[in-house]
């Protein structure tokens, strides 16, 4: 399982164009983006796992100074070609090295679920360090158990998906120094239930 994250990145590189076209609208995320905008403070924002930049653009258009990072070089290339209002960088999550208190807010939509449970715990500690005290942190994860490899949707290659229940996520967030403001179980995808979480 330890090499799977690299396979996940390779899958996104291979299907970046198809993925960006299929998920170009805010169908699943707009209400969470709007809640984030209404409840965030400050302007600097890190979009972890920004993909082709869809959410980054929406947040930038709302007045945030957005930096988007993603492990897929092809996704970052598409984001840079399409969006000039944000700064985009190709960066593996494990290599995030921003200074302490670098960002007012952090957005991580459907990205951290591609990490193993050990990696996820480590990245939460990094996020806590680079997020300013009181800053808003959004993450969306799939509900369930364990680490699974799936070939689903428009990405016709294996990707790692790690699933959690809300109690498990609440414990992990608490251990990293976060408390949950609010969360929602969302089943509009029908195939899987998503957990949309806002924490500080």
Strand fraction equals: 25-35%
Helix content: 25-40%
Total helical elements: 7
Reported CATH architecture: 3-Layer(aba) Sandwich
How many domains, as an integer? 1
Quick one: how many beta strands?
A: 9
For the sheet with most strands, the description reads: 7 strands, mixed
The neighbouring-strand order within the major sheet is: 3-2-1-4-5-9-8
What is the CATH domain class?
A: Alpha Beta
- Average pLDDT, rounded to a whole number, is 94
Q: Rough shape?
A: globular
The CATH homologous superfamily is named Vaccinia Virus protein VP39
Low-confidence stretches: none
Query: What is the H-and-E element order?
Result: HHHEHEHEEHEEEHEE
Radius of gyration: 15 Å
Structural class: alpha/beta
Find the CATH topology: Rossmann fold
Can you walk through the features of this model?
The structure is a single chain. By secondary structure, the protein is an alpha/beta fold. It has a single domain, classed as 3-Layer(aba) Sandwich (Rossmann fold), CATH 3.40.50.150. 35% of the residues lie in helices and 28% in strands. It contains seven helices and nine strands; from the N terminus they run αααβαβαββαβββαββ. The chain is globular and about 40 Å long. Keywords: Methyltransferase, Transferase. GO terms for molecular function: methyltransferase activity.
């Amino acid at each position: 399982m330890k090499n799977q994250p690299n396979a996940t990145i390779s899958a996104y590189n291979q299907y970046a164009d198809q993925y960006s076209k299929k998920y170009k609208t805010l169908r699943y995320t707009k209400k969470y983006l709007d809640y984030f905008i209404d409840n965030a403070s400050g302007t600097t924002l890190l979009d972890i796992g920004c993909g082709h930049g869809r959410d980054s653009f929406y947040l930038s258009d709302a007045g945030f100074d957005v930096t988007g990072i993603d492990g897929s070089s092809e996704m970052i290339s598409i984001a840079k070609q399409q969006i000039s209002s944000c700064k985009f960088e190709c960066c593996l999550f494990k290599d995030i090295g921003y200074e302490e208190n670098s960002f007012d807010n952090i957005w991580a939509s459907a990205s951290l679920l591609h990490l193993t449970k050990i990696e996820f715990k480590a990245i939460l500690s990094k996020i806590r360090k680079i997020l300013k005290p009181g800053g808003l942190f959004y993450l969306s994860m799939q509900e369930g158990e364990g680490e699974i490899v799936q070939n689903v949707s428009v990405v016709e290659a294996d990707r790692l998906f790690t699933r959690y229940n809300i109690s498990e996520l609440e414990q992990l967030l608490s251990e990293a120094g976060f408390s949950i403001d609010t969360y929602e179980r969302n089943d509009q995808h029908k195939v899987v239930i998503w957990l949309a979480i806002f924490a500080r």
